Amino acid sequence: MKKLLGYIFLSFAVILLPATVLSCIINDVEKEDLPVASLTVAQSGDAFNIAFPPVTNMKYANIIRQSCASDQFDSSITTVNIGQVIPKDINALPTSFIFEDPYTVSGNYYRYYIRYFNGSIYTKTQPTVCKEGNGSGLAELTVTSPELTFEWNEQTEDYILTLDTDVTVPADFTELAVLFNNGENTRPFTIGTPTSNVVPADSFIDLQKRLSLEFLDVQITQKGLIGIRLNDEENENYTRYWWTISKDATMHVNYTDAAGNPLAKSDNCAIFVPSTQNPENGFDFSTSKLPLFIQ
User: Fold this and answer.
1) φ, ψ dihedrals at 13, nearest 5°
2) Secondary structure E strands in 156-218
3) Could you give the CA distance from residue 125 to residue 33 in angstroms, rounded to a whole number?
């Protein structure tokens, strides 16, 4: 019974992971374009204030920023998912959301669009008109070549990802996350919290305990590191997240099969994390009628 209760508790724990894990989808799948008229971008000091309304049954919205070295946006366009807003009550959506972007650079040009998710499909607005940046720098991790090590041991059932290098996050960013892709979506999973803006080497994450369900029992690939900044004020009816530009990372893989044999794996290879350490036993060798699952 203790084992069964443990499985039930683990299942609920995975389902109830923080929003930074479960909700921060980075995806390029859109179903249709929405008018841009209700999306506005206004300068406020060194920042742009992006204001936009909700859509029906909105679960969350991503703020997508496109940048270019000229105001023509005809070549060399960079598209980055810079953040997300999540309503605290989808049955009482605010009339407008505000997302500030202070992470631009003078001399470059920027435009924005919003990508919504309502629980079943994605929709997005058309891009706004472009504006010249007025900030002092992008939100980036200050590390040249970050490295990770994944201990993939099927015999001991260890699936531990460890940060091998110190990583400095920008001021006000409170988490470092590793990005994983399952073939459909890319999500960040927290691997460390900074002290004086530095996330130290040896910070780690047990992937079997922290990956959300759709990233278990499938092949997944590592897509780099990002910093996460959170704003969750009590007087606001939505939560905001800012993400740094992703930084490519090298993930070394130490693989041991179920027989205890170490086998070579290439850096950044696809990995597989099972959803449970102990598979169910379907046999029943009891000699009397017992309540189901009691051993």
Assistant:
1) -65, -40
2) 158-163, 167-168, 175-181, 186-192, 198-199, 204-206
3) 5
120 close to 58: Cβ distance less than 8 angstroms: no
Dihedrals φ, ψ of 251, to 5°?
Answer: -110, 110
Q: What is the pTM of this model?
A: 0.81
Instruction: List beta partners, residue 222.
Output: 180
C-alpha distances in Å from residue 22, one per residue of 3, 215, 221, 239, 267: 26, 11, 17, 14, 26
pLDDT band for position 71 (cuts 50, 70, 90): confident
Q: How many CB atoms lie within 10 A of CB 232?
A: 12
Residue 193: CB atoms within 10 Å: 13
Q: What is the DSSP letter of 105?
A: B
Q: Supply the DSSP symbol for 207.
A: H
Do β-strands 204-206 and 47-52 pair in parallel, antiparallel, or remain unpaired?
unpaired
| Distance (Å) of CA 242 to CA 106, 127, 193, 272 | 20, 19, 15, 29
Residue linked to tokens 């990005």:
179
Report the C-alpha gap between 93 and 86 in whole angstroms: 10
Closest of 202, 198, 174 to residue 188, by C-alpha: 174
**Does residue 215 contact residue 174 with C-beta atoms inside 8 Å?**
no
Looking at residue 280, its pLDDT comes to 63
- Is the C-alpha dihedral spanning 230, 232, 236, 238 positive or negative? positive
- Residue reference for tokens 């927290």: 190
User: Does residue 113 register a pLDDT over 90?
Assistant: yes
**Beta bridge pairs of residue 179:** 188, 224
- Cβ-based burial of 243 (10 A; exposed 0-12, middle 13-18, buried ≥19): buried
How many C-beta atoms surround the C-beta of residue 119 within 10 A? 9
